[in-house]
Design a protein that fits this description.
It contains nine helices and no strands. By secondary structure, it is an all-alpha fold. Helix 8 runs antiparallel to helix 9.
Length: about 190
C-alpha cells in the first residue's frame, strides 16, 4: 500500500487534533507537532489555518463526490446514490456517528464541522457543492419537490447521526431508509 503524501499526513494529523482535542485546539503548531513535521513543512502546504480547514473540507467533499460518481444515468439514480453515500444500510455500532464506535469519516466530518465554526467562511466551498448536488438532484428525472424532500430528509438524518440526536435504532433505521428509496421509486414510475 502506498505511503500517504505529506499533504495527506498533515490533513490526517489535523483531523486527529480535531477529534482528540476539539476545534479550539486546531492550530498549525498542533498539527505540525501531531504530524511530526516542522512548521515550515506545514506552511509549505497550508500557510494558514483557513487553508488547512479548506483542504479538509475539499477532501471530504471529494470523497462524497466520488461516491456519487457511481450513480447510474437512469431516472432517480443520482438521488439513490445520494441516499447510499449519506446513510449506511445498517446503523453503526454505537447507534450514532459521533460516538467512539463511529465510522472514522463520520467522526472526522463532525469534528471538521466543529472546526468550521471557528471560521464560518470555510463553509463556502461546501455550500457551493450542495448547490451543485441540489441542481443535479432536481434534474434527476424525479419530481424536483420529491427529490428535494428526500435530500432534506437524508441531510437531516445525516446531521442527527453526526450529533447523536435520536438517530433511529436498528430495525427502524432500515425501515426509514427503505421508505426513502421507495419514495424515489414511486416518483420514477
Amino acid at each position: 500500500m502506498p505511503r500517504p503524501s505529506s499533504k495527506d499526513r498533515l490533513l490526517d494529523a489535523a483531523a486527529e487534533v480535531l477529534l482528540t482535542d476539539g476545534a479550539e485546539a486546531l492550530t498549525l503548531e498542533a498539527v505540525a507537532r501531531r504530524a511530526g513535521v516542522s512548521k515550515g513543512g506545514l506552511f509549505y502546504h497550508f500557510p494558514t489555518k483557513q487553508a488547512l480547514v479548506a483542504a479538509m473540507i475539499e477532501r471530504l467533499v471529494g470523497a462524497f463526490d466520488r461516491a456519487l460518481a457511481a450513480a447510474g444515468t437512469g431516472r432517480g439514480d443520482f438521488l439513490r446514490a445520494y441516499v447510499a453515500a449519506t446513510i449506511p444500510e445498517h446503523p453503526g455500532p454505537a447507534g450514532h456517528a459521533s460516538g467512539e464506535g463511529a465510522a472514522p469519516v463520520d467522526r472526522i466530518t463532525a469534528a471538521l464541522l466543529a472546526g468550521v465554526l471557528v471560521d464560518p467562511g470555510g463553509l463556502a466551498p461546501l455550500r457551493e457543492r450542495y448547490a451543485a448536488w441540489q441542481r443535479r438532484l432536481a434534474d434527476d428525472g424525479v419530481d424536483p419537490a420529491t427529490a428535494t424532500l428526500v435530500r432534506l430528509a437524508v441531510d437531516g438524518w445525516w446531521a442527527a447521526r453526526l450529533l447523536g440526536l435520536a438517530e433511529p435504532g436498528p430495525g427502524l433505521h432500515e425501515q426509514v431508509r427503505r421508505r426513502l428509496l421507495e419514495m424515489i421509486d414511486d416518483a420514477v414510475r
